[in-house]
Structures are given as structure tokens and as C-alpha cells.
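Journal club prep, notes for RB
We'll compare a predicted complex against what the paper describes. Inputs for the 2-phosphoglycolic acid case:
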Amino acid sequence: MIAGNWKLHKTVAEAEAYIQALLPRVSTADGVEVVICPAYLALQAMVDSTRGSRVAVYAQNMHQAPEGAFTGEVSAPMLCELDVGGVILGHSERRELFGETDRALQLKVPAALEAGLQPILCVGETEDERDRGDTERKLRHQVQEGLAKVPIERLGEIVIAYEPIWAIGTGRVATPAQAQEAMAFVRALVADRSRAEADKTRVLYGGSVKPDNAAELLALPDVDGALVGGASLDAESFATIVAAAG
Ligand code: PGA
């Protein structure tokens, strides 16, 4: 899976221009699940424009409740109504800037699954945590909390994105050794609950993935794809990353 997280970028008109440039460039990427994650307001337009193509459209967040007094939020049934295929949950920017908690994620991950949305649960350590030797402790906490209420037989359906926070938007990418070590650890955490499900779980790397470093990262044994921010905003550079996964 190669997923592009557009964050707070692209109006509907900009998204339309982008998708017309992207579709012909990824039409032959066999075996790669290509995902774009636009802002809420461009979801409907992107679902319509990608129908019949290999590109899936996911949201960047959702609320855990199906409805209620939660001003400014969007729910799983609302995303499903638009034919959105999945949702990023617990991105570090949601956690750091918007108070997203592990407790809410415990509910969001199973709520997305039950609604038929593919969840991408994001985890990752800060630079301080890595320097202190706390990377594994942080990952253990985030993975265990995020998956706590997922039934064991569905664990393998969750996509987990390992994104070292110090590598997001910084141009600093984890070394292959750092990425592989952390991602094998993430998979081992799933295996603590079910070895069979851990083999099915797809683990993505995120953090300054670019056309020139994608192939090396995607070749690592525990890397099943990438979550791409900045480099996904340009159709040509995103298509180059998709091609590196093919
Ligand atoms: P980046 O963002 O590729 O711009 O580092 C990755 C992400 O936030 O998912």
C-alpha cells in the first residue's frame, strides 16, 4: 500500500487537477494498493473521479461515535455513505496539535473496522524518546492501546503506519536499519496477541518518503508500504513512489 496524506492541502479544484494527472501515471502499478487521503471537503469529488480506477480514497480522521453532539466532527457512517474506503487514525499531528488520545483511538479503530473502513493506525516516537532509548516503550504503548478493543481475529486487517515523528516533514528519513528494527517490533507487538494475524498485518513506513529513498525503504523485510505526506502532493513524485513499490 502506498498512501498519500494530503493533510491541509488542495481545494476541490486542485484535487481534480491532481487526480487527472495521477490516474494515467499509476494505471499499471499492479499489486500496489494506491490510496489518497484528501481533506474532508474533497472526498466526494475524489471518490467520483477515481471510480473504476486502482486509486482508493481514505479520510484523514473521524470521530468514534456514529453521531451525536460533537461539533466539527465527522463519523464513520458519513464516510461510508460517500464510498470512502478507509481512514487514517492517530496521525502524530492529530495527537500533538489536536489532543487525540490513545483512549479515543481505542474506540476509533474498532469503530472504523465495524463500519467497513480500512483503518491506518499511526504510531511513532519523538526525537527525545528515541534519544532516551524509549522508542520501544512508546511503540508498545501506542500499538497495544490502539488495538486493545480489536477482536483477535480481525487484528490482521489493521494497517499500522510507523512514523518516527522526527522524520515527518523534516527531510530526515529513518535509516533502513532504524526503520526495519522499529517495524519488526511493531509486527512483534501484534504477534504477542496472534502470530497468524501479525503475518497479515501491513506495516507502512512514514516520514520524509521521497522518490529517491522509497525503493530502499520499501525493500525492507517488514515494510509493506508507505504513508507519504509532502511528496504525495505532486502527482508525478507520488506516482514515482508508487512505481518503486510495484
Ligand atoms: P512527510 O509526512 O512525508 O511529509 O514526512 C508523512 C506523514 O505525516 O504521514
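Talking point for the session: The chain has a mean pLDDT of 97.
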